Amino acid sequence: MSDRINLSLDQVYDLALRALTHNGMAEDHAQAIADVITQGQRDECHSHGLYRVLVCVRSLRSGKIAPAARPTLTQPAPSIVKVDAHQGYSQLAFQTGLPALVEQARKQGVAALVIRNCFHFSALWPEVEAIARHGLVGMAMTPSHAWVAPEGGSKGVFGTNPLAFAWPRPNREEPFVFDFATSAIARGDIELHARQQQPIPLGWALDAEGAPTTDAHAALAGAMQTFGGHKGSALAAMIELLAGALIGDMTSAESLAFDDGVGATPCHGELLLAFDPQRFLGDDFEQSQQRAEQLFAAITDQGARLPSQRRFAARQRSKREGVWLSRSLVQDIKDLLA
Ligand code: NDP
Ligand code: PYC
């Protein structure tokens, strides 16, 4: 028997939804989470696909999450939309804030969506892509848990702190998007290597003694490294400040302390920004879009690829052919329904 199994996207969604609701997640939260997990699996972002169901259910069982929390929206300034997730997962909070973010970006040119008190596990590209579908430029960032050492250090201070950006491309289905952890790799990827007893490349992590390691288990017990040395380190610090201190929510170190060894999804805030190109450019909008396209062509014409190009290709393939998953992962999720 093959150790891989093919599921349709509907089957992925259904499995995630049932595992979540069976373990106490309110239906609307479970739908929003299952949707983002299905998107992750569809785009072959394995660290943020179906694997995340295991972490969500562990978090539910820890009792830390409010599984039926109702997000509430306030607007402390015209261009700042604030949604309190009240210790629920972030997805419904984002859905609650998106319409007001779009409206304010169109009115003011720039607007911010601040999400507070949320449990956050997902990739950020579904959110910046959602902003770009409104013709807006989107950015998003969030802390996580203090697993990542600063460049030159060996103890976790920063989260894996992803940063995402989307630029709408009017005549194309997909925007220009990048979304990366400011660590060398997402922690979820190291966890998947550990599950499969696979080594990791040097440069991803240090062991508990601060020595470079290729052992995924030692990496999880030690500290992850930033991408690009001191540059990733500075970006990670910026995200702690903008999406932690500035919005009055937990830093990655505070979030890890709050977790208290449970191993739940990190709890903290998120900052999203939206820019309206029409407001910035007025009549010059079309010409600027053409200049952006020239930039993209200058990248691809020399054989380099755009970020998200792999993901968009996977998206089309998964819609046609379904997705391939490890049989043991699917079984572990089915076990959550027992
Ligand atoms: P990767 O390093 O795999 O990819 C980062 C970005 O670089 C992607 O946009 C990717 O596009 C692009 N890219 C990769 N290779 C190339 C290339 N050769 N040329 C051009 N672009 C390239 O991702 P990470 O491991 O850093 O992060 C994975 C995910 O984890 C992200 O979606 C992030 O949001 C999520 N995450 C979430 C956290 C949270 O707290 N919620 C914490 C940390 C990470 P493509 O996808 O097409 O390969
Ligand atoms: O993969 O680094 C990660 C991560 C942290 C929180 C959610 N994903």
Could you give a short description of this structure?
The protein is of the alpha+beta class and 338 residues long. The protein has helices at residues 9-22, 27-42, 52-62, 90-108, 125-132, 187-195, 216-221, 230-245, 252-259, 277-281, 285-300, 309-321, 327-335, and strands at 4-7, 72-77, 80-89, 110-119, 137-141, 163-167, 176-180, 205-206, 223-224, 267-275, 323-326. It has two domains: 1-62 and 308-338, Hypothetical Oxidoreductase Yiak, Chain: A, domain 1; 69-183 and 226-307, Ribosomal Protein S8, Chain: A, domain 1 (2-Layer Sandwich), CATH 3.30.1370.
CATH architectural name of the largest domain: 2-Layer Sandwich
Global structural class: alpha+beta
Terminal CA distance reads 23 Å
Task: State the helicity in percent bands.
Answer: 40-55%
* Number of H- or I-type helical stretches: 13
Average pLDDT taken over every residue: 97
Q: H/E element string?
A: EHHHEEHEHEEEHEHEHHEHHHEH
CATH fold-type name of the largest domain: Ribosomal Protein S8, Chain: A, domain 1
Features:
binds NADPH dihydro-nicotinamide-adenine-dinucleotide phosphate; Ribosomal Protein S8, Chain: A, domain 1; 44% helix; alpha+beta; binds pyrrole-2-carboxylate
Describe the structure.
The protein is α+β, with helices and mostly antiparallel strands and 338 residues long. It has two domains: 93 residues, Malate/L-lactate/L-sulpholactate dehydrogenase, four-helix barrel (Hypothetical Oxidoreductase Yiak, Chain: A, domain 1); 197 residues, Ribosomal Protein S8, Chain: A, domain 1. It is 44% helix and 18% strand. The chain has a seven-stranded mixed beta sheet with strand order 2-3-4-10-5-6-7, sandwiched between helices. A two-stranded antiparallel sheet has the order 1-11. Strand 6 and strand 7 form a beta hairpin. The relative contact order is 0.17. The mean pLDDT is 97. Bound molecules: NADPH dihydro-nicotinamide-adenine-dinucleotide phosphate and pyrrole-2-carboxylate (PYC). NADPH dihydro-nicotinamide-adenine-dinucleotide phosphate binds next to strand 7 and helix 12.
